[in-house]
Amino acid sequence: MKLTYLGTGAAEGMPAAFCACPVCLRSLKEGGKSLRMRSCSLLGDDVLIDMGPDIHAQKLRFGLRLDRLRAIVYTHSHEDHEDLYALRQCGTPTAAIHPDVPEDEDILDLYGNRWVYKCFEMAMSSGHRARESHFRFHEIKPWQTFDVGPYTFHALRANHRPIVVEDCLIYAITDGKSAILYANDTGELSPEVDEYLRGIGLHFNLVSMDCARGLLPGNGHMGWAECLRLRERLEAIGAVDSGTRFVLNHLSHMNDMTHTEWEAFAAPHGIEIAYDGLVVDTEDHV
Fold it and tell me: Of 25, 83, 184, 286, which sees the most CB atoms within 10 A?
């Protein structure tokens, strides 16, 4: 499997648009990998994990053919992950012309929880030219398994918002040859996640971990300490080994480190730092 990180920042981006805190100013000066768009990843060439407000800039920067998307898999409904304006554009005939695809086959599959679906319905009802018929929505709940093309997704319960507010998701993904744990927008995971992963017996080639809190204690996001504990927990159930790549993602100015500073801090622990444009091919680590 190939995973391309299109955006590795948190909700405010990095540096944040209206911020003059020390790390935002250092990141702006450092440039390059310290400049982070909002969270979004591309699985293979045709499956997005989340679609945030920087999707157009990401298309231009990385030369993406988003007209060829098969599906969008959402973790939750926050606006930095589910951009409703972009979704309406995707469903507007004059904004998304696909001359080589028959209209009855021009369908984009969307996967997400019921809160994501409610936002989708709102987007379609407020978009006068958007075609709801362009989309096929699949409501996903924790512990559910579903297939998207060659990929099998295992939906796991995240620890991001209270369940009564939104039951957010992270995903274990496999193509039958390798596997990825995509743990974005979550605090420390519950023991039931360990038990579920133990039961399905996947071995992860890549573990992508939210670290929006940096060195601060975790809350609805993980910090450094929670990421280290997640690695220990995965080791304890045999889901990772010395060949697994661990990558920090969804970084914010709460981290108080630029990309270069993060790399120097994390490298002795065998942990990598994601950046916009990083490509991880699990076939290289099978």
Answer: 184
**Thinking of the domain 2-285, which architecture would CATH place it in?**
4-Layer Sandwich (3.60)
Name the β-bridge partners of 47: 43, 71
Cα-based distances in Å from 22 to 43, 125, 146, 223? 34, 42, 44, 19
Query: How far lies 160's CA from each of 27, 52, 76, 259, 265, in Å?
Result: 26, 17, 9, 24, 26
20 or 132, which is more confident: 20
Cα(96)–Cα(161) distance, integer angstroms: 33
**Both structure tokens of 180:** 């990825």
pLDDT the model gives residue 127: 67
Contacts of 122 (CB under 8 A, 6+ apart): 84
**Domain limits of the chain?**
2-285
Helix or strand (DSSP H, E) at 205: none
- Residue 124 identity (one-letter amino acid): M
Residue found under tokens 């916009």? 276
Strand 245-249, strand 206-210: pairing: parallel
Average pLDDT over residues 194-209: 98
Give per-residue pLDDT as tens, 69-125: 999 999 999 999 999 999 999 998 889 999 988 888 889 999 999 999 999 998 888
How many Å apart are CA 40 and CA 58, to the nearest integer?
9
- Which residue type occupies 275? Y
Whether 285 shows a pLDDT value over 90: the answer reads no
198 exposed, middle or buried (CB, 10 Å; 0-12, 13-18, 19+)? middle
Residue 277: strand, helix, or coil: coil
| Alpha helices (H) in 4-127, listed in sequence order | 22-30, 55-62, 84-90, 114-126
The conformation of residue 75, written as its DSSP 8-state character, comes to S
Instruction: For residue 220, give the H/E element and its range.
Output: none
